[in-house]
Amino acid sequence: MSSASTAVIFILITTTTTTLFFLPTTTTAAAPPQSSFKKIYAFGDSFTDTGNTKSVGPGGGFGHVSNPPYGSTYFHRPTNRYSDGRLVIDFVTQSLSLPLLPPYRSLRDPRAARNGVNFAVGGATAIKHAFFAKNNLTLDNTPESIQTQLRWFDEFLASQGCNGTASASAACGAAVEDALFWVGEIGVNDYAYILGSEISGDVIQRLSVATVTNFLEALLKRGAKNMVVQGLPPSGCLTLAMYLAPEDDRDELGCVRSANNQTSVHNSIYQSKLDGLRARYPEASIVYLDYWNAYRSVVRNPAKYGMKETFKACCGSGDPPYNFNVFATCGTPGAAAVCPDPAHYINWDGVHLTEGMYRVLADMFVNGTFSSPRFSTLLA
């Protein structure tokens, strides 16, 4: 692979979330009970980012997300979300009768953010940016990590008059009480950075799981009582993975076996760390969302969930068989083909998902069985 190809792939991968709005599927589930949550604080990467990427600055690999056809399905304009419409966090927010979360970097007056803030940013890693820079594994497009988002959260707390933990002052308590802490998937970008390098996946797994676990504990120490954390999706089912991997590297679903094995092991270790946090903080509720198995369930039986295309990107280059080319990605001048009905596609741009898929996943998490313990326990 040429250095130019590697650069484009790095950029692409690392830009990788009132009444209930979920569309019905062939399974029926009751809507969640009325929630007492008054605010949500969200963290993660491009699967959860509702607009923080826009403020990364010029010269990065993110300009395409500000171009049509991003946002075309629901917002009818680009909103710097990596999809044609809403993300999982948007559906969950709306199901809790809360307004959509503003991205932290767009806040003019943080004191007015009474219903929460989204700190997730596209391309974010779990491991600190300095690790990748030290090992010459970065193009400096995404210096933000999960630690950056913790710093932003602390800045936000300070704007609310809080400079400590929930027990430090009334202002601190008010900032975190009645709040749902949503930690979207984080770590896929860490693995993407080491493509073609001598850094092993085991090193990334160990460092990223430890870093995110420490991040979760930092939130708990700041007073978080209700927390939702997502595991990694089966990255081997993304269009980009299918495009890059040899055809003999496939699992029983047709996804890339090596990539899915990596994320599966990562998730198992991550869940064991969550068990440790639950033991140390018994007063907190920590719900794990099984992104890996939920996604694979849709790939296994797409028609059940209203899907027709499991691997082909909706928005892309027009190149067969995946409508995908790393040099003509969605939102760039070379992207010529957009599917007529994104709701029937799992993949939007080859790395991120369609609003239709995010809608299905949100329903599986909130109303289904792909959360442990069940999401409804937070709403009791």
Automatic annotation (TrEMBL):
InterPro entries in UniProt: GDSL, SGNH_hydro_sf, SGNH_plant_lipase-like
Keyword Signal belongs to the record: yes
Keywords: Glycoprotein, Hydrolase, Signal
CDD domains per UniProt: SGNH_plant_lipase_like
An example Gene Ontology molecular-function term: hydrolase activity, acting on ester bonds
Family: Belongs to the 'GDSL' lipolytic enzyme family.
Name of the featured protein: GDSL esterase/lipase
